[in-house]
Specification:
Structural class: mainly alpha
Oligomer: single chain
Number of strands: 0
Strand content: under 5%
């Protein structure tokens, strides 16, 4: 997860999770998941991915 982020995509992803009311830990997990899946630049996937992580957290 160490690449240059010229468009602030990592910041946007973390801000999305924090604005949704999640902790820093969840925001980091969210960011890591987006990066692993190659979806960091796809803001349309942010909601579904975050919802998926929240569902996994409930289990």
């Amino acid at each position: 997860m160490s690449y240059v982020d010229p468009h602030g995509l990592k910041t946007r992803a973390v801000a999305f999770a924090v604005r949704a009311g999640h902790t820093d830990e969840m925001a980091l997990r969210f960011l890591e998941t987006l990066c692993e899946r190659g979806q960091l630049g796809l803001s349309s996937k942010y909601g579904p991915v975050l919802a998926e992580l929240m569902g996994a957290e409930d289990e």
